[in-house]
């Protein structure tokens, strides 16, 4: 109860409102969407340019760090007064908005620019599994999927990608929020 009054006092005293998690998450989602779009393309072309596979792996590993930095910036701007749920929601919104942007980019690419992209990926996977020991069974399953036309449509693939990004993003945001709140913001000379 005292903490609630303290927060209200600090907000009134400093004449500063806490950051809106939905707006800030959408703003962060714009940047994250561009990043996830670049990640899609590095992953999509990794078979043609092997170095892009390494780059895409590094980009995937960097996502939690990027989210941490975005949430940390809000935590510091709000002088350590942001609620746990507010920071977490900001991260989820960033992934939702970013996922929509990267999904749109992926859909345009798969649907109109390179319509045979998914089929080529499956054919490459079949060749890969046929070349490794004990991979014939998986290769046969993939060939059956290809012959029977059971590949997902571009919109189905993008929706699955979006669901994955939001789910994984909520977990990443949860962990990042825990870490952000564990590190108290430093007091600057104007805050003392």
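-> sequence recovered:
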């Amino acid at each position: 109860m005292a903490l609630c009054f303290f927060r209200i006092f600090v907000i009134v005293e400093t004449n500063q409102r806490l950051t809106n998690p939905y707006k800030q998450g959408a703003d962060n989602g714009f940047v994250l969407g561009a990043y996830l779009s670049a990640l899609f393309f590095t992953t999509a072309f990794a078979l043609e340019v092997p170095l892009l596979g390494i780059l895409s792996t590094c980009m995937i590993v960097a996502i939690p760090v990027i989210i941490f930095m975005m949430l940390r910036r809000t935590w510091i701007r709000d002088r350590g007064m942001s609620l746990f749920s507010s920071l977490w929601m900001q991260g989820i919104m960033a992934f939702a908005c970013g996922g929509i942007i990267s999904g749109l980019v992926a859909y345009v690419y798969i649907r109109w620019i390179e319509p045979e992209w998914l089929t080529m990926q499956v054919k490459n996977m079949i060749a890969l599994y046929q070349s490794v020991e004990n991979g014939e069974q998986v290769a046969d399953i993939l060939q059956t999927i290809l012959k029977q036309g059971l590949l997902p449509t571009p919109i189905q693939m993008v929706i699955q990608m979006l669901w994955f990004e939001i789910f994984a993003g909520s977990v990443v945001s949860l962990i990042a929020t825990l870490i952000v709140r564990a590190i108290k913001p430093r007091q600057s000379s104007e805050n003392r």
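The longest helix spans residues 84-113.
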